[in-house]
């Protein structure tokens, strides 16, 4: 039996509405990763002007869209690395930004200054809230990640914060949490190390604001 294939006939990837929705979601995820990669490269080349006004909101929006789409295609996408490998995507800038989970202006100090009393109060409150959560034995990603993200975002406002040892450790912990599933929890050893690191960062934060590298937190 000869089966002829018409070259003018549209090739369908799906035969049901559910399959069509799945492929549409995968295509959307693909597009978000490509767009994020272009944005990151444009930021590095200074092609995106007024980074705080244009880059940061765009990056935050794309990261939020990525997280939303990942929930919709979770059964078909075990990890972003697997997804990119499956579809032969070479977008290292996007992959790094996804792993970090925050814009580059948050990961690296914007050097914007000046440090206002409001910023100091907000960042101090973020420290206290996060440390209280750890002492109350919060260990799951969905509990800790929002608080730590807010803390790291507050850090980025301060001129010179990129040189603070505690800030780089907080970013590293943010990357660790970002790579976990929402229900996953830190181990007891990890949580103790995190408490130690955040307390060190809190002390360094106050010392740096006062220009004193040796005194303790007031």
Structural description of this entry:
The chain contains nine helices and no strands. It has 218 residues and is mainly α. The chain has two domains: 92 residues, Vps28 N-terminal domain (de novo design (two linked rop proteins), Up-down Bundle), CATH 1.20.1440.200; 97 residues, Four Helix Bundle (Hemerythrin (Met), subunit A). The C terminus is likely disordered. It is found in: Late endosome membrane. One of its GO terms (molecular function) is protein-containing complex binding.
Keywords:
218 residues, mainly alpha, de novo design (two linked rop proteins), Four Helix Bundle (Hemerythrin (Met), subunit A), 2 domains, 9 helices, 0% strand
Please count the helical segments. Answer: 9
Averaged pLDDT, please?
82
What about the largest sheet? none
Looking at this structure, what is the CATH superfamily of the largest domain? Vps28 C-terminal domain
Structural class: mainly alpha
- The name of the CATH topology of the largest domain is Four Helix Bundle (Hemerythrin (Met), subunit A)
Stretches where pLDDT falls below 50 for ≥5 residues?
Answer: 212-218
Instruction: Provide the gyration radius in Å.
Output: 22 Å
Compressed to H and E, one letter per element, the order equals HHHHHHHHH
Number of domains: 2
Distance between the termini: 87 Å
CATH class of the largest domain: Mainly Alpha
Could you say what the CATH architecture of the largest domain is? Up-down Bundle
Using the alpha-carbon principal axes, give the shape: globular
Strand content: under 5%
Count of β-strands: 0
Domain VPS28 C-terminal: 115-210
Domain VPS28 N-terminal: 1-108
Keywords: Endosome, Protein transport, Transport
GO molecular function: protein-containing complex binding
């Amino acid at each position: 039996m000869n089966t002829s294939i018409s070259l003018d006939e549209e090739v369908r990837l799906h035969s049901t509405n559910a399959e069509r929705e799945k492929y549409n979601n995968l295509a959307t995820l693909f597009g978000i990763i490509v767009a994020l990669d272009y944005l990151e490269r444009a930021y590095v080349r200074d092609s995106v002007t007024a980074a705080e006004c244009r880059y940061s909101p765009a990056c935050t929006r794309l990261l939020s869209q990525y997280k939303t789409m990942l929930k919709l295609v979770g059964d078909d996408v075990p990890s972003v690395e697997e997804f990119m490998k499956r579809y032969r995507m070479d977008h290292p800038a996007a992959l790094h930004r996804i792993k970090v989970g925050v814009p580059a202006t948050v990961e690296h100090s914007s050097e914007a200054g000046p440090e206002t009393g409001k910023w100091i109060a907000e960042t101090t409150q973020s420290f206290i809230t996060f440390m209280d959560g750890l002492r109350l034995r919060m260990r799951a990603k969905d509990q800790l990640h929002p608080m730590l993200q807010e803390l790291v975002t507050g850090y980025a406002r301060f001129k010179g914060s990129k040189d603070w040892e505690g800030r780089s450790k907080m970013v590293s912990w943010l990357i660790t949490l970002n790579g976990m599933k929402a229900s996953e929890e830190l181990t007891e050893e990890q949580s103790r190390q995190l408490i130690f690191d955040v307390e060190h960062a809190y002390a360094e934060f106050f010392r740096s604001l006062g220009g004193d590298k040796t005194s303790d937190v007031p």
